[in-house]
Amino acid sequence: MTQVLAVERLGKDFKVSGGLLGPKGLVQAVDDCSFAVAKNEVLGLVGESGSGKSTLARLLMCLIRPDRGRIVLENAAVDARSADERRRVLSRVQMVFQDSYASLNPRHTAAAEVAFGLAARGEPRRAAERQACEALALVGLTPNLFAERYPHELSGGQRQRVNIARAIALSPKILILDEAVSALDKSVQAQVLNLLGDLKRTLGLTYLFISHDLEVVRYVSDRIVVMYLGKVMEIGSVDVVYDAPAHPYTKALISSRLTTDPKRRTSAAPVTGDPPSPINPPPGCRFSSRCPIAEPICRAREPKLSSLRRDPHHLTACHAHITDSGHSLASARKSEGNP
Amino acid sequence: MTGIEAHVLSIETAEPVRIRKRRGYWWAVWRRLLQDRVAMSCACVLVIIIAAAALAPLIVPAQAMKNSIAHRLLPILSDGHILGTDELGRDMLGRLVYGGRVSLLMGILPVLVAMLVGGTLGIFAGFTGRFINMLIMRLVDVFFAFPSVLLAVGLAGALGSGAVNCLIALSVVLTPAIARVAEAATTQIRSQGFIEAAVATGASRFQIITGHVLSNVIGPIVTYSSSQVSLAIVLASGLSFLGLGVSPPTADWGLMLNTLRQSLYVAPMNAVLPGLIILITSVCFNLFSDGLRSALDVKP
How near does any CA of chain A get to the CA of B8, in Å? Predict the structure, then answer.
């Protein structure tokens, strides 16, 4: 399995100004994030609002610069400071944004919008327009009918198809889908998801699928990354994480899903309260303030992302799963622990 | 893909629809503009005024421009003088036609220069943001500290009298406001998702400004600028009145308004005529630019 994209201990802080004399704060929007995406894989990225999913996507697109760590694209580290490098990255990584309407220029036709990126790359106008029409055809928008339409003349699903066409027209290796289907209604969502599946097969794409919709993520992803307040909480293959989540946060997240099956109705209490303020977070595990099994060790020391004993590909950042961490549920070096 | 959609697609591929001829954005703007009756009427009036001014030596007989004390302040519809005569017995129509040459030049040229300079500054400031924006806009604010008339008088006085210096002074006076309009429009556009999406395609800053920003901010800039045409005409007449612009024998709408002021009680209709033509010109500019702004908008 060749890896297309990897992030290593990636971090991004945002300064929060408290006015002229007020206290200054630091939001660690993304902190110490490490994971890799393999070729032709769909990696799901889930987490509640404010967990740093979109910041991560923007870091990967070089739209903002990381403060710590590095991004490795096709086995070469990316230097986000150089404009040339940024352009090289953007020829291999592309992104589909959540708001299909806002991310299209209201004064550009569908073809012009798709052709813009190609022309910016130095394609002659004719060639860019031809390739734009090809990309529109690939996403199921017949150029004859749709090439000359403006965003307000398209439906939500069609607009998102234009966004996808714009991204794939630049022939990327990896496509970041930042809540790409979240704003669409269910039937259109299904169409777009099927389209994404088709494109992945025909173009050999790799997806980083960011969403808060757990069902959609389960449907499309091979593996998932669970984030909470800028930190990776759990990584594992979709079936394992959904059927046997290791981290208490993932457990709460999974059990908060709504189901149509009365037998599977959950009685377990979901996570209570709001996530704590991300400004100047306390030491220790970030989930400790809401965690049902938090112990003093959780508030004192930050758990490292480490693989479970029963499955080396399933990683979690929880003291309860780290051998000899001092947590009462953690296994000692000899006994087999199963919280 | 649903069955229905697949069906629709198969129909489309079986019978290809005739491709609509590509005509582009500006062609569509022109077509929308042609359908706007108000804008087109105003455009016609402006074309007549501008053409008359441009062709003044051909259409106004030299005889009409001669002084004639005997024919002072003849009323409108007098024999040989359709719009009467001024305080020195010159034909009003001829004077108005000749006056358009200076007044339109003073009204349009400084606005065009200010649009170019102010628009560029504002778009650059708005798109760059942060410190550069602060720097440019605070510099622009310095000009706002002066009343526009005072600033124009001061600049024209410092540069010396003459039409060219008057044009320069007017351009400087008009630039800050246009820069501010451009900056506000650009700042608003810059935060929109499609700009980030354009950055994400790897386009350079210049490509994004020409490809995405310009088409979205040109509307407000053009509309605001054209409303400044009348202001420029009046300011220019003020400068002429103070002896800083064109000097008396030359016809100029503002100058005519000032000299006929003294005859207001004797021949009110004649005295009002230059003001009326300034009013017609500026209203036409405003209405036309309003139509242009709607035409620049792709939504009906």
Answer: 10
Query: Which residues contact residue B31 at a Cβ distance below 8 angstroms, ignoring those fewer than 6 apart?
Result: none
**Chain A touched by B10 (CB under 8 Å):** no
| The model's pTM | 0.79
Residue B20 lies in a domain: no
CATH at B63: 1.10.3720.10
Q: How far is B2 from chain A (nearest CA, A)?
A: 7
CB-CB under 8 Å, B1 with A116 = no
Q: pLDDT (tens digit, 9 = 90+) per residue, A59-98?
A: 888 888 888 888 888 888 887 677 788 888 888 899 998 8
In sequence order, which residues have a C-beta less than 8 Å from that of residue A19 and are 6 or more positions away? none
Residue B13 lies in a domain: no
Tell me whether B19 touches chain A (CB under 8 Å). Answer: yes
B212: DSSP letter: I
Chain A residue numbers with beta carbons less than 8 Å from the beta carbon of B198 are 105, 116-117, 120
Could B197 and A163 be called an inter-chain contact, meaning their C-beta atoms sit closer than 8 Å?
yes
Q: What is the pLDDT of residues B30-84, one digit of tens each?
A: 888 888 888 899 999 989 988 888 887 777 776 666 777 767 766 777 676 677 7
ipTM exceeding cut-off 0.85 for this assembly? no
Which residue of chain B has the CA closest to A149?
B298
- What is the Cα–Cα distance from B253 to B287, expressed in whole angstroms? 21
Asked if the Cβ–Cβ distance from A145 to B216 is below 8 Å, we say no
Residues from chain B that touch A163, judged by Cβ atoms under 8 A, are 197
CB atoms B202 and A86 under 8 Å: yes
CB neighbour burial string for B30-43, b if at least 16 within 10 angstroms, e if fewer: eebbeebeebeebb
Of A106, A116, A163, the CB nearest to B203: A116
The domain containing residue B86 runs over which residues?
25-296
What is the four-CA torsion angle of B162, B167, B146, B183, rounded to 10 degrees?
Answer: -170
Angstroms from B30 CA to nearest CA on chain A: 15
Contacting residues for B293 by C-beta, under 8 A, at least 6 apart: B219, B220, B222, B223
Q: Give me B157's structure tokens.
A: 């006085």
Neighbours of B145 (CB within 10 A): 8
Q: Could you tell me which residue, A264 or A235, shows the higher pLDDT?
A: A235
CATH superfamily, with its number, for domain A3-108+157-227: P-loop containing nucleotide triphosphate hydrolases (3.40.50.300)
Question: Residue B267 and residue B74: Cα distance in Å, rounded?
Answer: 8
Q: Based on the structure, what is the number of domains in chain B? A: 1
B200 to A61: CB separation less than 8 angstroms, yes or no: yes
Secondary structure (3-state) at A148? coil
Which residue in B71, B105, B82, B58 sits closest to B251, CA to CA? B105
Q: Specify the amino acid at residue B212.
A: H
Question: For chain B, first and last CA: distance in Å?
Answer: 31
